[in-house]
Amino acid sequence: MAEVMACGPTIGSGKPAAKSNGTGHGLVVLDSLNDEATDEQILQGIIGGEPDRELLDFAAGARGDRRMLLEFALGATEEGLVELRGDIARMTERRIPRRVAACVKRHLDDLSPSCRHFVQVAAALGMSFMLEDVSRMLHRSSASLLSPLDEAIVSGIVVADELRLSFSNEFLLQGILESIPAPARGALRREASEHLRSHSAASEQLFPSTDEVCSPAHSLIMDGRATAGIRTAERVLADPHVSTATRLDAEASIVLGHSLLGTEEHERHARGILRERGAGQGDVVTLMASTALSSALWRSGALDEALGLGRAAVRYSDGADPVWRMHALLALAGKLTDLRAFEQAESLIDDAEAGLRALPTQVWNAAPAVVRARLFLQAGRFGDARREAELAVAAERPDAVPVLRPLAHCVLSTVALYVGDLPTAVESLGRARSELASDRTVLPSAQYAWTELRIAVKRDGPQAAVDLFAGKYRDLPTQRSLYVEDPVAAPFLVRLALDVGDTGLERSVLETVDALAADNPGISVVGLGALHANAVAAGDAAALSHIIARSPDPIAVALATEELAKIYRSRTPGGRRSTASLPSSPSQARAEEAIASQLNPVCWAGLSDMERRIAYLVSVGMTNRLIAKEVHLSAHTVNYHLRKIYRKLGINTRVELASGAATYSSRAAIYSTGTDGRPGFGRAGGTAV
Question: Phi and psi for 79 in degrees, rounded to 5?
Fold first, then answer.
């Protein structure tokens, strides 16, 4: 891979300032770079289009390191992580390019072995860390680490303030972590978490004045008794003799309580706090006001502003008690999960969990489990999602978090639905309903209604689900938060509307999701959701193929596969999938169905993301040449992937693969079309992974 030349690109023309070096091994940067160029100008100069908000937000991980930003822009271009739509550059996949990781590795190779070891272990502790934590993990004295620490600071990898050490930027931290073999990286992170949990000295420093790790008001709110918690906090504030820390805790509790209750004044109150107090590092009131306002804006569909406030809340949370910092970390993790930025979200969840584990008295450990369960569900990791959700609902005090428990039950219900276990799905939904029907306050979410709706479709048919819109869920089709939390809801509901002939429902969904996408042009997941919904409405095969090739959502890919298969069937004599996917005899059909049912419990977990997409496109009858065009690979490379797929699955033919992929897509999609072209439902039974 070519090195970036010292000068860098010229900014201002709007054309790419990088071109192939002629060797086939990378790009070189041309001309001179204006020292005053902003991140936006640098990205535009290299990529050739104006970066949208999501791209700018991700690139901010370079934190002013121009070399790292250049490597990111070049790598993102080389690896197809960005695409141009008109004059706008948008991300297609939220990850650092391999070029950035390679740059960091070269930097690490220039360090002494002891310094390299130091920064790799420190990286397991997170973005910021204490020297004594590294010394304990290495079983060395802090004094013996001064030399590698000094080298790390001089090299620009680590920066120091009065209290803590930090890595200079997020890209550098991620590159260091990726330089560690995956098994060792996982072991280091677990060891770091265990260290923070077991070492009570850090906790004693955080809570020098009391043995309690959370106030009575805060505890009542997390127990689902928000009104009682608010009243308790107000009584605390009425006492002129309470300490400053106690007063701040009470103010933060009031913000949290009103946020969960969804009172009309809570958003205005949060804005007032931020306007009057400004940003305060470790100030739990500012932290909670930012978090509460961010969540309210997120539900309303103002995603850019919500993300900015959420990230600010996490920044403010440094130095805050873990029981309060948890709220900012998990709230932002939930938003990043909605955006399918799973690695970033999981890192925040890990940080929240480590903070709680480090407390002298364990409390609310179910909270990270609930958010992690939802992340795993959205990522298609159904077994992991079930495990985390079961831990959350089984937790007892003080680990239990009743305010989040209905969401965990919804995860369990949805997982059961996806794997074809309708009785368990109904049972878990019933438990969620029981929690919702009680007098406890719960986290606001569209997932409760959305889960019930999908079960109605599966159990009673599409009309039963539509009937719900005439009753208690009449506002759901126009509720923006539904399409933010689950972008696949839009194409699902459009298909539902088409099958029952409900043009009003179709129009409501499309108008809502199109407006949401228009208001958030930098959020690619929302844009893909709108594209998917309109593709279903119009029967747009090209757009559906694009979803299969580019969507980060495995369920969206499954739904798009089902829709594309329907279009291909309509073009094929007999209304069946392409003959490339048809068995030649009834006995062969039975044999291939048996193969498909045997593959599903294990096959998809063993395939890479690209292999899975190719398998889906095979299932609708596409040739290698057509698939290559959709996934931006050569036909030869597609054939190479197919040979790997056959080997992993233990099959020999394209027909076997098509049968297995078609079976899996119909199960994952829940609501699909049968082989006769009529509305149908994913087969019951079996397991999806």
Answer: -95, 5
